[in-house]
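Just scan my protein:

. . .
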Amino acid sequence: MEKKNIQTELQNNAYPGRGIIIGKSEDGKYAVTAYFIMGRSENSRNRVFVEDGEGIRTQAFDPSKMQDPSLIIYAPVRVLGNKTIVTNGDQTDTIYEGMDKQLTFEQSLRSREFEPDAPNYTPRISGIMHVENGTYNYAMSILKSNQGDPSSCNRYTFAYENPKAGEGRFIHTYMGDGNPLPSFEGEPELIGLSGNIDAFTNQIWNALNADNKVSLFVRYIDIATGTYETRICNKNQ
């Protein structure tokens, strides 16, 4: 698989929707994740990321303009012990509660499917990072309709053990803009990871479409100690 440049991928796609990146830093010291949201409607764009415990949640920037909070207000990131959960919806809570009851990542998602937002049927994308005693592995999932047919849900899980330094995987909701929006296809894209947390954050934020980008979360977790640094960018200030 060709290793892609994340800046080029984002610059060439005006509307990837929501995206998750997970991988390992170039120096091999950090487990890396990023999550971004975009929006075309006023309701979708009226959001910011705010810290919530060890994770984050979405929040209305202007509460008076909030219309339907059902699919846009949620906790994208939660931490359960040595596991960091990153998703594009309230399935973060489903995974957290399932894994807290000793279910696997995949088993926890069995009760969920794509979003009920016809005609797009937006995929639910999720990631889980496991950092423990100097070891690191991660997995990613996508739940999507069968070619836009909501009567069938296709479930894919991709697991990455001992990931290679300087490499990550990128999964996003849409292949690009359209009506209906075309769902992501294939396995998570292989991308190169370079630079420290600030350089990586700037790479992504500056490459996202200026009109459609809303918020970005980036976290670097020290694989040796489990401590982490976080960056949050919000278009609404």
The chain is about 15% helix and 40% strand. Residues 6-234 form a domain with the Glutamine Phosphoribosylpyrophosphate, subunit 1, domain 1 fold (CATH 3.60.20.20).
